[in-house]
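U., I forgot to send this yesterday:
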Amino acid sequence: MTLFLSAREAYHQQQNTTLTSEPTKTNSYNTGYLAVLDDPKQQSQGYYHVMAFPTGINLLLKQYDLAEDLIVETEAYNLPLMEFSFAVIGDNESEMIPGGKNFTATYFDLDKEIPGSGSYWRAGQRILEVEIGINPQEFFCRDEVSGLDFLPKSLQLYLETDNISFLNYFRIGQTTPEMQIILHQIVNCPFQGLIKEIYLQAKCLELMALKLEPDTSGERELMRSRILRGDDIDRIYHARAILISDFDNPPSLLELARKVSLNDYKLKIGFRQVFNTTVFGYLWAYRMEKARTLIMSQQMTIKQVAKIVGYDCPSRFAVAFKKRFDIQPSQYLDRFIVAKNT
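Result:
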C-alpha cells in the first residue's frame, strides 16, 4: 500500500477558512497550513507544516516516519521563489540531496500551468527536512537593504535586470555544526504565540545568512581561479538556461560552448564547479524531474510525457526514469492515483 498526503488540499482548506473567519490575535501567522499523515494501519506518521510570517518568510517543516511508501502532493509555487532546504535526517532522493546536506535554489520560470507538484518517499525511512522560502525581489529590494554585493552573482543579476530567463540558481552545500544547532532550535521551538513567531523568523534569518555568505564568497573565489575569470560564471549560468530551454533537443557540448562564448574545456570544468555535476548529468536530472511532475499532473499519457522530455522511444524513457527514481513511470502513476484516491 502507498500512503498519500495532500498538502495542496490542506492549503486550500486553510485559504477557505481564512476567507470566512475573523483573524485572531493569538494566531498572527494564520496563513500557514498543516497536513497530517493519516495511516489506516497506524504504522506511519508525519506532517507537512507551513508557517507564513508577515515579513514574507515561509518556514516549512516536513517530518515522516514511514513503514510504507508515501506520495506527498504539494501546492504550486508562488513565483519568484528562493528556497533554502536542509535535509536534517534522511535522504531527499527526488532532488538528490543526502542527509546532512542542503541546497539554495531560485525559481523564476517554472511551469505555472501544472497545478501542483510533489515528492515520492520510500518505506523504511525517517525524514526530517526544514525549508525556508522567500520572494527574493521583495525581500532583498526593500528600502532598508543597501546594496546587493552580499548576494551570489546570479541573484544580483536577477534583481538588477528584467531579463530573468537564464538566472535560476542551484547550489548544494554541507550542513555545518552551526546550521545543525539552528535547525534543532527551529524543530524544538519552546515558545508559543508572538514569541514563537519572532524566534522562528530570527532563526530563519540566521540560516539564510550562513548559506548566502559561503555561496557568495565561493563565487568570488571561482572568479579569482585560473580557470574561471571575469564573466565566465555568468556564461555558465547562461549555458544552463539554454539546456533547460532546449531540454527536449539540447545542443552538443561544442555547440553549447559556442553559444555562450566559452571553450568546451572551460564549460565542462566550470559547470562542475558551479553546479557540482556534469553538463548532461544536470540535463538528465532536469528531464526526469520534469517528467515526474508531468506524470503527477495526470494530464497526459506516459508516451506523451516521454516525447515532451525528449525521448522518442518510451522504453528508453522508462529505463532512464527507473534509474532516477527506482520505479517505472507507469508504476509511479498507478501508485500516485491509488494513493490519491484512498
